[in-house]
Amino acid sequence: MIRIVPREEYCIGCRLCEIHCIVQHSRSKNIIKAFKSERRPVKRVEVEEEGHVSFALQCRHCDEAPCVTACLSGAMQKDPRTGAVVNDPERCVGCWTCILVCPFGAVRRDEAEHKAVGKCDLCPDLEVPACVANCPNEALLMVEE
User: Fold this and answer.
1) Per-residue pLDDT at 10 exceeds 80
2) In the chain, count of helices (H) and strands (E)?
3) pTM of full prediction above 0.85
4) Cβ(66)–Cβ(101) under 8 Å?
C-alpha cells in the first residue's frame, strides 16, 4: 500500500502541493490554463496552518476506510491492486456521507461536479504523486507499507 506521509517539521506552508495537485487534475495539465481559463478541479490536498506549524492534509487511504463502509452507492472503493481508496464519480450520488465520516477531513465536495467528491487518488498516471514530486522541502513522502 502506498501512502503519502506529511512531515510538518519540513513544511513551510508554500502550498505548492495544492497548486501542482490542481494542475495534475486539470484538463490541460497546464498551470496557466488550469488557473486562468479552465474549470478548476478540486484540490485533493490542503495545507493546514496554525501559527508556525503547517502540514499538507490529504486522504490517508485507511486500511479500514470509513468512507468505503459508509458509501451508499458503492462509489468509494478500495483498489484491490494498490490499496488506494478511489471514488467513481459515475456512481457517486452526492450524499456526502463519505465527507461526514472521514476522520481526517480529507474528502471534499467537488462543487464543479455538483455531486462527486474530490479526494487524493495518488495521481495514478504518475510514478510519484504531483504533490510529492513538487514539494521543495520534501515535506511529503511517498512510502510503501
Assistant:
1) yes
2) 5, 8
3) yes
4) yes
